[in-house]
Task: structure prediction
Amino acid sequence: METILHLPVAVASYLLDIAHGLWAGAHLFMSWNNLLAVFGGVTIGCFFGALPGLSITLAVALVMPFSYGMEPLTGLTLLSAVYVGAIYGGSISAILFNTPGTPAAACTTVDGYALTQKGMAGKALQMANVSSMVGDLTSTCLVILLFPLLAKVTIYFKSPEYFALICFAITIVGSVAGRSIVLGIIAGIMGFLLSTIGMDPVEGSGRFDFGSIELLSGVGFVPLLIGLFAIPEFVRQYRRSRMATGPITLADGGATVANDRLTKREFFESLPHMLRGGVIGLALGVIPGLGATPAAFVSYEQAKRRSKKAHLFGKGSLEGIAASESGNNGVNGATLAPLLTLGIPGDVVTAIMLGALLVFNLQPGPMFFALHADLVYGLFVALLVCDIALRLVGLVFIRIGRYVTRVPTGYVFPMIFVLCVLGAYASNNHLFDIATMLIFGVVGVIFARVGLPVVPFVIAFILGPMLEKGLRRSLAASGGDISVLFSSPISLIFYALTLIAIVSIVRSRWQAVRRDRSSESTPSSTVKDALDE
Amino acid sequence: MTFVANLSRPLKGLAVGLAVLSTLTMAAAGPARADGDYPSQPIRLVVPFGPGGSTDLAARVLAKELPPIIGADIAVINVPGAGGAVGTKQVIDSAADGYTLLMAAIGSNVLRPALNPDLPYHYDDVTYLGRTQINPNVLIVRNGTYADFAEFQQALETRQGKLRYGTAGVGQVTHLGPILLYQALDIPTEAATPVHYDSDPAAMLALMQGEVDFVQANLPSVASAIQGDQVKALAVTTPERIDALPDVPTYTELGLPDVSIVGWRGVAGPKDLPQDVVDSWNRALAELTRSDAWLEATRQLGDDPAYLNGADFTEFAKQDFERYRAIGDSLGLTH
Result:
């Protein structure tokens, strides 16, 4: 009897502790300075995220010197708010200009831009905003509930588990490959090969650098991304305008759907994807070194597999936007767990927050939560308020965004081009990155010409080095014993998931082929076709 | 002047006025400083690593506290890439006028050139203006594995080839530190296998996970875990004990003074800087490193203030370079 009672009592007291902590945190948070930090931070983040070329790192690095001079909670709140805002803001330019404002929004471009071309940019922007908020909210609530446990998850993820997880993540290529899985795999292999340029991630020696210090530092990800997406879009819009008689706008023929708010039905259809995205973001955010981009793709892939309208994915699916945007925003709160409890930054933004902690004379690590519970809960409250800010600030940006779709492209795209050059340079204060951006612009144009999909290329470029690190560290630590890769249950689960994913990709492709054969005469009028002309 | 002549009258007046005004402000600013006209404009301080890292933070503390002393604003600019090589090279190639300087660090200025002879610069391609701080390293093991250094040393000597240690990357302080230890103990460098991670905290995480057996990492990354009894500190690399870890012996006390590997940071510029630039930085850094505000901020970052003037810093960098080049040769890293 006693043992049965024990568990509910323990859970109740645990929840009571959290409620108490949140109350104290809210008390610490409620000041005009902190509220200003939230709204100001989210606005700055949205702005930088929404402008193609200006990266999230740039936004955070810009507010960093200010935050270091503030109260610890205000400073950390400002940095988090900029992060949250920028991750969301990236979706705006992904949807409007086919150019992800941040790497994490690369997944949103496919469906978002397709909707813009159909004159439904408003709907897409609304969905991105709502799902960012719901995804972030879901993951923040779970972080608050599970915070002490999350650090334990991090401890379980050694190099072999990390490797297995990345293996699984790579199967995403299958669901974003577009029409041909073979072309998707080819693009993926090219991205993987490209990622090997530069310093060997484990041994530090140069690979394919040809004695050039620029190549030794590897291909810059931000310039690569800007080049691959923005330049081909620029070229496409230029050709479109040449063929038109008068000024043209982004939406096809200038006609926009009158009612471009989200309907209740659309929201509830996508809600499961948002919640799942939040959970996926949480799970991947806890593991250092993954970041928001894989989370968006994994969430997208899972949504596509479960959706009743899977055939719309890649051709303008609101559910797709919901999945990817909730996935990448779900990471925000979760990265705080390894940062605060282990002192391990998962990405550039948390690295800057780690610096802020040191400047505030706060030592992150196992003792942090015990010593500074108020601050941690204050930060949680700040994250929750960020979600409210995200919605309010988002509404303003959506209004502007909808307007931009009606501005002639002759004004919009030259400006974007300037921003891209600026952003490529500002990412590392290095001229070589502008050249990188232009080169990948040409690569992007060639990709579009021969029908190679860009997204698998980008995913492989991100995941390649992670896969390599996981594998080589596992082998170094085990003295070259390959069985270490299969020795833990966590890894085995991920290998099983990988197999399931591969089987399901092959099966759905096979079914698609059969369907195509049986209905060969039906004209397929997809957005992709409209894009390619 | 033709440009001014073509302007309309009110604009011409404005242009002349501005010209006079700027001359006046420059004249007013000039004599206020004792050391000639340097610096007469803001100084770019290039950090060859990303924002938020320890070198970046050191540079930002400097940029905040130094302007009243040197008499010009300092703008911190991050140029990361290739382990600090890109930013360092950018400064080396810039004009030697004292307005583009480098936040020098052990990794970018000495370790990279010492272990990568292919790198297009040498450790002495810069003018060292002054070292500001050092960064103590701590040898840590999982709690409950080894009680003290003697026990650890015994394990290292008897279980040769079995122990693994985590580093923040090949050729980093965390990689070479343990090698210095084997050399001091006179055991082969294959005594333990390095596993390379991305950063000091990541190496510590691997230690907590049990993927590696020991790590010798910088103090701020591991201090909290030591306080929280998650890992145990066995030795520190500074000549004297650290305030934060009063019970942990130094390698010097353990009879191994050669394991005195520390990270360091300072300011450097392109080669052949004008003498007045060198002089004013020597003076400014000496004053800065005595100021309370700087001392406090630097200690908060986990660094030890350790000023060396330009000449001593140059000699120090040379010794460090030769020491690590020798290690690199013995490991076959420099082939």
About this structure: Residues 23-517 of chain A form one domain. DSSP finds 23 helices and two strands in chain A.
